[in-house]
Amino acid sequence: MAAEARQGHVLVTGGPGSGTSTLVEALAGHLAAAWVEADDYYWQPSDPPFQYKYGASERAERLLKTLGKTERAVVAGSVMGRRRGNGL
To answer: Which of 22, 64, 71, 79 is the most buried (most CB within 10 A)?
Structure first.
């Protein structure tokens, strides 16, 4: 089956600076999928950035809403709960 006919979501995780965003951008283009950056659902907009977090339930709700609007998406970053880091 051609990649364009497939439906679903792909999660690419990795530490900061490991190339996940670069890989996701290329993969999303290849699959004709939406590119979703997990940090956009973790951190509230601020200047300087990365100062204020969304609450856990709001992060999950916002991400699920976005994923529900598309048949194919590639997500960059951590969306899994963990003791440290930016997991949703």
So the answer is: 79
